[in-house]
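DATA SHEET
Item: assembly model
Revision: 1
Owner: S.N.
Input lines:
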Amino acid sequence: MSKGSKAASGRATRICGAWDVSALPCARCVGRHLNLCKPLDDKRLAQLLSFGGPRVWAKGATMFRAGEPIGPFFKIRFGIAAVFRILDDGRRQVVALRAPGDCLGYLEQDGAYSFEGQALTEVEACAFDRRQFDIFAAQKPDLAAATAEELSRALKRAGQAMVVLGQLKSTERVAHFLVEIDALYRERHVARTPLSLLMNRNQIADYLGLTVETVSRAFGKLREQAVIKLVGNDDVIILDHAKLRDIGKV
Amino acid sequence: MSKGSKAASGRATRICGAWDVSALPCARCVGRHLNLCKPLDDKRLAQLLSFGGPRVWAKGATMFRAGEPIGPFFKIRFGIAAVFRILDDGRRQVVALRAPGDCLGYLEQDGAYSFEGQALTEVEACAFDRRQFDIFAAQKPDLAAATAEELSRALKRAGQAMVVLGQLKSTERVAHFLVEIDALYRERHVARTPLSLLMNRNQIADYLGLTVETVSRAFGKLREQAVIKLVGNDDVIILDHAKLRDIGKV
DNA sequence: CGGGAACTTGATCTCGGTCAATATTGGTGG
DNA sequence: CCACCAATATTGACCGAGATCAAGTTCCCG
């Protein structure tokens, strides 16, 4: 599965922004710059790389923990990660899904990570020392602008997620979720047919503020309405995009 | 009420960040630079001001609408504003509360505002043309850094709000809300005793993803438990901060 | 004061949570 | 390749938190 998504990502010709880390050498090909889109020239790429090394996490691995002394932040090259928080009593809320091109572990509070990070698939990401990155960004206006742009994108997505959590009914939430990750995976070239959720029902439930059972029932309703078709546990075929978007209030 | 908060804000010696707009001349005192904290020197302040004028909205006024062609963004000097989205069927979710020092209307999508903005109290803010601001920021690394910092702060708050909406029970949400705005108003020098909510039950409900009745009942429960005391419709005295934080999972 | 808006309280209903019992699935080893 | 098994998903029965509908009550502003 993670192999599949990785292959799909590999075909990407452009992931995003002024600092496309897919352009950076990865563990298997140090010294070779793919440089698929070139807002950063080779010299600057090399400079960025000098303090940001590639790293790989297995599916399910913890990338960082809330409260843990702040370390590097990451920019995803392949795979999908979840950012979440756990309350003392075990309640858990996934706060964001992060795909190739997204940053992860950027937020900090009093010198500690603000949220938890976990790899949903195998994940490969570049690690950046934030102090050095900030210094570098201070001299590269377009990199700073790209950072602001990325944060804006994340903030917009968070706002939409708040609408989903605060106002939508369970089936609406699930419909919204499907449209959302379909668009996300497509945009980041993780897309395949059928759509692979890359999350189990539990993780989806924690993202949507529901329980596993409710998520399952919502999938059932959408299937009854012939809006989707379920294939195994992880794959979904969207039969009626328009109706799904309609239900999901997208 | 808005007059009170304004007076309180006026006493602030430092609001935040590298571009404290309270340092900019306001409508009533053009040409005079308060310059309370001085990360920007006078020349740069003047430059910023040349494309960002002060503006005032009455309590309840709409500052911008989602989908409306993008105009300036704003940085609040006095007052409190709400950022929200309305669904076709009238459901409404407040996505963020913005206090002095916060930016507002920054997010855009395809050349239109992403959310709606409304003044909860009388609001005074500086308007900035984003194109000119971006150009300016590109030459001022510390301003770009301050923008990223501000976005990070907003994103962190959004993440916490998602936990509230996704996981907390109604009373927990209201407790969390009280702690949150108490801290916010305090931090931005809007604070007074007793705590003024500056929002009616309907607005609180729309922020917490609840109904007016449920919010009212939650206030009732907190009052019964002697955690708070209600004074009129808009003021709250927090009797037991520790317990309130505990209930609100802060 | 007086009147309308905002808040509170009560009764009822519904959606989603909880608990429990199957049913699928997909990975593993024979 | 198939049979098995643990993990995951589905389904069902029931319950409860919060929504909805409907009165009251309080507040606040003229």
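QC remark: Residues 169-170, 210-211, 213-214, 217, 232-233 of chain A lie near DNA strand C (CB under 10 Å from a C1').
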